[in-house]
Amino acid sequence: MSKWFFFSMLFSTGFAGFAVASDASLNNLLALPDVAVAQQSSDGTYDVVCTDGHREKVTDVDLRLNNVCPNNSNSVVSGVLSLQKRSDGQFDVVCRDLTKLVATTDQILQNKVCAQSVPAVVIEDGVYTASGKLDCTIRASYTGTQLTGLHAEFTGTSSDMTCAQNVCTGKFVGYPQTYTFKILDRKSFEYSYDNGQGRVVYTKK
């Protein structure tokens, strides 16, 4: 999908010093390939919609750390599947239920499009820990409102797991076992392999 960017500065002449700082932030923001739409808020933060449909509110610090789309801890899943800017400045939008529509930047940033397609997030993306175990980073994917996939990474290996009824299974690169992640709630899952061996609960950092 083509990467397009929209940026709106909201400040008065009384904030000239802030405007100079925002120029650098704008350059950092435009350098991120996974940002589809962004707008600066009056409090200096940025409302961002990522190309994968996630919505985030980020700061200048987040931009400098590349903690944007979809790595920010405030990232939430929206009903948007894809965005593409039109020549008239509006966006062609495809929702997660495959509904297609045309929307303005304000409608997208105010979460007024694809609201009916927002999946019920059963687990948050991020880094998960368990005592004595390697940290695990996960990223969930949804079809409609159902969790259908989970990308999981440990140091040196990863797995694209398939999910049904909030139970995800798959093999990690370099390991013969079949692993199971049973989602317990939005911030925890139960890890095990083969016939329930190594059972342990991971919680979000």
Brief overview:
With 205 residues, this protein is mainly β.
Please explain how this structure is put together.
The structure is a single chain. The protein has helices at 16-30, 60-64, 105-109, and strands at 35-40, 46-50, 55-58, 80-85, 91-95, 100-103, 126-129, 136-143, 146-154, 157-164, 167-170, 179-185, 188-193, 197-204. With 205 residues, it is mainly beta. Strands 7-8-9-10-11-12-13-14 form an 8-stranded antiparallel barrel. A 3-stranded antiparallel β-sheet has the order 1-2-3. Strand 7 (126-129) and strand 8 form a beta hairpin. 28% of the residues are buried. Mean pLDDT is 80; it is low at 1-21.
Q: How do the SSEs run, as a string of H and E?
A: HEEEHEEEHEEEEEEEE
Evaluate the radius of gyration.
19 Å
Proportion of strand residues: 35-45%
Low-confidence stretches: 1-21
| Discrete helix count | 3
Mean pLDDT: 80
Please estimate the helix content.
10-25%
Outline, from the CA principal axes? Answer: globular
The spatial strand order of the largest sheet comes to 7-8-9-10-11-12-13-14
End-to-end CA span:
32 Å
